[in-house]
Amino acid sequence: MTPRNPDFAADIAASFARQGALATIGAELGAVTAGRCEVRLPITDKVRQQQGFVHGGMVGLIGDVAGGYAAMTMFDPGKDVLTLEYKINFLRPAQGEMLIATGTVVRAGRSVAITRADVEAIAADGTRTLCAILQQSSMPG
C-alpha cells in the first residue's frame, strides 16, 4: 500500500494527542506504518468493569482508533478520519497487563477505507490472547 500523505505518521501523532478520551484512559500510540496502526492500553482500574475485565467500551474505543488511524495513513494530506461504522466481536474477556489494538487496512478507496482491528490482551508473562476483532469503515474528515 502506498500512502497518499508522506507525513501521515506526524499527522496521526498530532491527531492522537488531541483526543482527551484516550489521555483519560491512559492509551498510547504505538507503531504507525502505511496501512497499519497500533494503540496500547495499560490495564488499570480506570478501564475495568465490575467483574475485573476491561470494559467492552474501552476495547471498542482502542480498536476503533487503531483501525481509523490505519485508514488515515491512506488518506490525502490534510485529512483526518471519521468512523462511519464498526462491528465488534468479543472473543474472550480482556484481562492482563496491557491491551494492544492493531488496525490494518483491508481496502482503501478514495472516499471510504475498510479496516480490521485485532485487540489482544498481554499477560504478565508476555502471552498474547486475541480478545476482540473489529471491522470498520472510515472516511476522510
Plain-language structure description:
Strands 1-2-4-5-6-3 form a 6-stranded antiparallel sheet. It has one domain (8-140): Thiol Ester Dehydrase, Chain A (Roll), CATH 3.10.129. 23% of the residues lie in helices and 40% in strands. The model has no long low-confidence stretch (mean pLDDT 97). Strand 4 (98-108) and strand 5 (113-122) form a beta hairpin. The chain has 141 residues and is α+β, with helices and mostly antiparallel strands. The protein has 3 helices and 6 strands; from the N terminus they run ααββαββββ. The chain is globular.
What are the salient characteristics of this protein?
alpha+beta, 141 residues, single chain, hydrolase activity, Thiol Ester Dehydrase, Chain A, Thioestr_dom, globular, PAAI_dom
Which fold does the CATH topology refer to?
Thiol Ester Dehydrase, Chain A
CATH superfamily: Hotdog Thioesterase
What order do the SSEs take from the amino end to the carboxyl end, as H and E? HHEEHEEEE
* Helix share, percent: 10-25%
From the N-terminal CA to the C-terminal CA, the straight-line distance is: 21 Å
The total of beta strands comes to 6
CA-based gyration radius? 14 Å
Question: Counting H and I runs of at least 4 residues, what is the number of helices?
Answer: 3
Structural class: alpha+beta
The CATH top-level class label: Alpha Beta
Strand content: 35-45%
Shape: globular
Query: From the structure provided, what is the oligomeric state, counting identical versus distinct chains?
Result: single chain
The low-confidence parts are none
What can be said about the biggest beta sheet?
6 strands, antiparallel
What strand line-up does the widest sheet have?
Answer: 1-2-4-5-6-3
What's the number of structural domains? 1
**CATH arch. level architecture:** Roll
Residue-averaged pLDDT:
97
